[in-house]
């Protein structure tokens, strides 16, 4: 047999697409779905929104780093977090601007700017031009899209290079 059967070729193509992370928002990804809660999956892959004031990080005041729940890429620092009075965690800026992708969102009969993680392509929330100094921006983010890493665990979890954000020396 010179060529693999068509069914086998299709199965291999699906494995390559899923394994390469080429699935985008709205596409089913069983591997990611199995690692997330239903609410996390709804937020990051179906562009959902969690309820205000009933989420993990809206009132978190601990120092640390917020990373993408799917890819683990660092997104926000507790040093840039503020109480916006909205019931969702809000930040003045991402840790590294290039890790955030902004897209125009015209749902709900208005124009907003959606923010997504670059590597994970996770829907994070939206950014608004009504935040405090120094940026004047409010990144209104779903807790379900984030995993919080306390500053004391950054080194152990592989995020030691971000310790200087918290006035600590980076290890190794």
Structure notes:
By secondary structure, this protein is of the alpha+beta class. The protein has a single domain (26-166), classed as Peptide methionine sulfoxide reductase (Metal Binding Protein, Guanine Nucleotide Exchange Factor, Chain A), CATH 2.170.150. It contains three helices and nine strands, in the order αααβββββββββ. The chain has helices spanning 6-19, 30-35, 38-46, and strands at 64-68, 74-77, 81-82, 90-91, 100-105, 112-117, 123-128, 138-141, 146-150. The strands form two sheets. Strands 3-4-8-7-6-5 form a six-stranded antiparallel beta sheet. A three-stranded antiparallel beta sheet has the order 2-1-9, with no helix packed on it. A hairpin with a 5-residue loop joins strand 6 and strand 7 (123-128). The longest helix is centred in the first third of the chain and has 14 residues, at 6-19. The model is unreliable at 1-26 (pLDDT under 50).
């Amino acid at each position: 047999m010179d060529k693999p059967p068509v069914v086998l070729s299709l199965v291999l193509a699906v494995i390559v697409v899923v394994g390469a992370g080429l699935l985008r928002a709205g596409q089913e990804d069983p591997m990611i779905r199995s690692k997330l809660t239903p609410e996390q999956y709804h937020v990051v892959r179906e562009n959902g929104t969690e309820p205000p004031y009933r989420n993990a990080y809206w009132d978190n005041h601990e120092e640390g780093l917020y990373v993408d729940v799917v890819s683990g890429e660092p997104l926000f620092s507790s040093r840039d977090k503020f109480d916006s009075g909205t019931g969702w965690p809000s930040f003045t800026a991402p840790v590294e601007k290039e890790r955030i992708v902004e897209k125009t969102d015209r749902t709900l009969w208005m124009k907003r700017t959606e923010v997504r993680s670059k590597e994970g392509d996770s829907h994070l929330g939206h950014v608004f031009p009504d935040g405090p100094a120094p940026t004047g921006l409010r990144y209104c983010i779903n807790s379900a899209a984030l995993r919080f890493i306390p500053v004391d665990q950054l080194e152990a979890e592989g995020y030691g290079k971000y310790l200087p954000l918290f006035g600590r020396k980076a290890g190794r």
